[in-house]
Design goal:
9 strands, single chain, Cytochrome Bc1 Complex, Chain D, domain 2
Length: 287
């Protein structure tokens, strides 16, 4: 009996540790769910004429953009991005050696469930598509920036109007959520702005003549096809979510993190999880 005592103590300690860990995980999941409820409730009270599913079109979702949305609605009869999407859809289904991007991406969750966690880390739609392109064409052919962003638009388009549904209970996703929350609410740059300064505190107000979108629903329309971006660059109309983050950093008078930085991924996860239940509307379109 004495010989077995240390083993019993170790087993009891392990079970106690496991129970404590599970209890902590449950508390964190509850905290995240409460956070999301409070975040969504704030905007539902601020814009009482809107249902949760209405917050999926950026500033055009808000009553303050009603006149601008009239022009948007007219253009959407024949979406200006349709030619770019037609080309991307053809690439999506194009077969090479009996393999296609559609086949490769079928092993992943649907677009409304990204980002998601694996034992090797968090996977975004862009990362999944880039890896599939490498699988199809070899490691040196991972697609150029515009090609990949357009393919992300095709992938998210296929999810139709499914509601955002990221795995709240995954511990890695939760850790990134809390990191993203810090990024979202932290002030930065010469203007001392945070993401919340514009998209929570001033949602629906105007800045430099533009209606500021509500943070709720932010991720659902990306990537965006933007006519003003096309006019600015002369060649590219696509704006990814991380492109938008970098632009917001610059407008705050701050230097944005490098592309694909962990802070940007954390911010994406924080915002995506706060969009839980809001339907996708990708690709988005902006004048």
């Amino acid at each position: 009996m004495r010989d077995n005592l240390p083993r019993v103590i170790v087993l009891a300690a392990a079970l106690a540790f496991s129970a404590a860990s599970n209890g902590q995980a449950d508390l964190e999941s509850t905290s995240v769910r409460q956070d999301i409820r409070e975040f969504q409730d704030f905007f539902m009270q601020r814009f009482p004429s809107l249902a949760l599913s209405d917050f999926n079109n950026g500033a055009y979702s808000l009553p303050q953009s009603a006149r601008l949305k009239t022009g948007w609605d007219m253009l959407m009869h024949i979406p200006p991005y349709e030619h770019a999407m037609a080309e991307a859809r053809e690439k999506w289904h194009r077969e090479s050696g009996g393999r296609s991007l559609a086949q490769c991406m079928s092993s992943h969750p649907t677009g409304n469930r990204f980002p998601y966690a694996t034992p090797n880390g968090i996977i975004t739609a862009r990362q999944a598509i880039t890896r599939c392109l490498s699988w199809l064409n070899g490691p040196s052919h991972r697609g150029n920036r515009d090609e990949v962003v357009a393919l992300v638009a095709v992938f998210r388009e296929q999810a139709g109007d499914k509601p955002v549904n990221v795995d709240i209970d995954d511990p890695l996703i939760r850790r990134m959520y809390f990191r993203g929350r810090t990024v979202f609410w932290s002030r930065r740059g010469q203007n001392n702005f945070s993401c919340a300064t514009c998209h929570v505190n001033n949602a629906g107000n105007r800045l430099r003549g533009e209606v500021l979108s509500a943070a709720l629903g932010h991720t659902t329309g990306f990537p965006l096809y933007s006519l003003s971006e096309l006019a600015r660059t002369g060649e590219s109309a696509w704006i990814s979510l991380h492109d938008q983050y970098a632009d917001c950093y610059i407008r705050s008078g701050a230097v944005p993190p490098p592309p694909h930085h962990a802070d940007l991924l954390a911010l994406q996860i924080y915002q995506t999880m706060n969009d839980t239940g809001v339907t996708l509307r990708a690709p988005g379109f902006r004048l």
